[in-house]
Amino acid sequence: MSRLLTSVVIAMAGLTTIATRPVIAIPRSAHVAYTESGAVHGDSESGVLVFRGVPYAAAPLGELRFRPPVPPARWTGERDARDFLPACPQLVDRDPTENNNSVMSEDCLGVNVWTPAIEGARRPVMVFIHGGAFIEGSARNSWYDGAALARRGNIVVVTLQYRVGALGFLELMRIGGDEAAASGNLGILDQIAALQWVRRNIASFGGDPTNVTLAGESVGAASVAILMAIPQARSLFQKAILESNSGARVGHDLRQAEEMSAAFMRAAGVTSVGELRAMRWQDVMRAQEHFFAATFGDSTFGPTWDGVVIAEPPMKTILAGRAANVPVLLGTNLDEVRYWTEIEDLPLQSKPQSLLRRQVEAFTGSRADQIIGTYVRSSPDYGAAVLQLETDVLWRMPAIRMAEALCDHQPVFMYLFTYRSTASNANYGSAHAMELPFVFGGIDALDAIAFTGRTPYRHQLMDQVQGAWLQFVRNADPTISAGASWPPYDRVDRQTMELGARSRVVRDPYSERRQVWEGTAFDNETPSGAQVTALLSENGAHAE
Question: Is 105 annotated in the active site?
Fold first, then answer.
């Protein structure tokens, strides 16, 4: 995968950097909510109230760069909350599932709130964490607009931004000492700070701080798993939704993180944390681009098991039964890896069989031929077999392992999203992120149609998906009606809700493929991060 950023784009991003938002005089007749830092003025849109860009932490500028989030300064008067904060600094890429991110600034740590009303009954709250490989993405993305969910479900929807890339996940403890002890997990600490803000302030927006569902997609879902495993975060939410990720396949140990940080410092041409703090963020992004191109690739940054913020890989905590004991809704899409074959233009389906065997053999040993043969026999052709195998290794099997670990202790509801795109410009199938327009209700937006197509039954499916998510947020049970019961997942029946052309409960879907992986842990160590990254190589460049 490549994320190229030209000097022109960087210059444009610099020109669009937005300073701290001014406090303005607004008539008292406007919609105003009161936070612990001051009053915020929102607006009425799409039948709900929306408050955008409400800071949950101070802008991490100057000496606050590479430090944990701190509360924002209080303000007097009413702060304008009608516009989004800028995206946190990142490399801009062409991606139909990411939009509106080219306006950037380090003054980015804020939440957006959609609510039916700021007075009256305390409503269930859904807090959503965006994806983006821990290097990109933002809550500015129109795909995460919470108006439809808030309006239909009478809930409060919150989206948040967190530091990404080097500014959010660069491990500097060895270089910077104790003051940089948490630098490798700043993005996770930002998420915790946002959840703490929700706990303290959401009642002012009509929400119930004791009924919070934490949701996320892609690495947003991985973040949910991490937060389930961190003791200081567990009391901040009561339910969890994980879309297309789990507690596996994320993060680094301290040794790996320190090696990457040393390489990044070389790419940036600096030797101290002070020099890094003195750099313009645009220059940090240039260094990040050089680092990606010359060293580790762009799937590098992410949480570190540093013993300070995160004690161990979250899947270990989950497998040991020490994670947050909350109801969980999780699942994957049928063709996750098609996101990479179509959007990133990786011809994985033409991967030589000898290379695929070496890559699978690296973590399954003598079972590689049996595993590959299982997929070849159950697929229409070899290329489809490769894509299904890689989807299972990277997404579906880790999700199943997480469900298996949790279902003995707490309610777990599993889904498999099988809607297939009819877009004419690419063969997306049921690619990674395909479910997002159906969850948030954006299937009629033109940029979403370019991804999902115009299948006639998509409105019916959106109604089902939204209804299930809202029921879970409200009642910890995604069952929409008695006639369409969604039973909890267990190790015997493995009942899974298939969401697609025909939504139905399926017992142990694709059971032969699941069974052939028995004995493979999918626990952050087997397969290792390097081994799963190798699977996203079509030519063996990262296979060793």
Answer: no
